[in-house]
Hints:
- The protein is mainly alpha-helical.
- The chain is 61% helix and 3% strand.
- The chain contains 14 helices and three strands.
- The model is unreliable at 74-83 and 163-167 (pLDDT under 50).
Amino acid sequence: MINWRRFFRQKQNWLGLIIVGLFVFTALAAPWLAPPAEPTEDPSYLEIKVKLLGLPLPPRPDSPLGSVPKPPNTMPGVALGQGRSYQWDVYHTLVWGTRSALYFGLSVTLIAATFGIAVGAISGYLGGAVEGIMMRVTDAFLVFPVIAAVWLIERVIFSRFTDPFGFPIDLVAWQQLLIDLRIDAIWVALVLFTWMPYARLTNTSVARVRNMDFIMASKALGAGGPRLIFRHLIPNAIAPSVVMVARDIGAVVILASAFIFIGLRGRMAWAVVLVGGRQFILGLGGNPFTYWWTFLPIAGAIVLFSIGWNLLGDGLNRTLNPRSS
């Protein structure tokens, strides 16, 4: 159990809560903080028609954090756009992108953690050859590079969502469902290849707990396997995984942003807007000091998002494991 009094006595935990709370508030208050110009399917982007083609425009009264040119098509199921005369407002995406970051980080981490904890608990409880096989499969997933998985999933599944010119094609029901759920190749790859540490951690914890007296007493009273696993073993072995979940929420957002920035297609709004300003930071003639608004607000938000969740994870670790502090 978490000792909440101990948790709230630590100042850095309050800082983590404030940072995460700020992002949650921003996500909930997005319609008021950055009202969309008109109802759209995806309000994460506010298009601005400009006369100056191809160059990002600096902050101005109607765009307090400037704007960046729309990048090439980077999102499955989204058309290429209407030419380089349209730009994306950075402030609008900074606010609305908080929703996609929270959705991405929470959904990927919670699904991966749930599956990994279940695998680790079952293998730790059964032991023997079953445990050996399940852990070897876990190790096989551990050695596979995530970036290769993203590329493979993109080519096999998500490249069929658009034609060679970037315009949507007729989608079957399951493809449209993936788009509606904001699931892309990066999301799928991270879910498939981030559960293994949870499995390893839970397996070790369950193997330590399964021979304790209270487990033996439960077995003597007739408790079956599922009851032992979900009522006794997991609650007593889940603490390290709770800490990892808090840390991983920010980590997967940074990792997904990096994948999108280097050219892999994704749907996280913050990273997609960073792609729009990429050539003005790293390209020929790019200057991050001249075009600071193309990366600084969004990159700062991504880093702060990760710091907030890491502070929470560290606080939970110190609370659940006092010897580590």
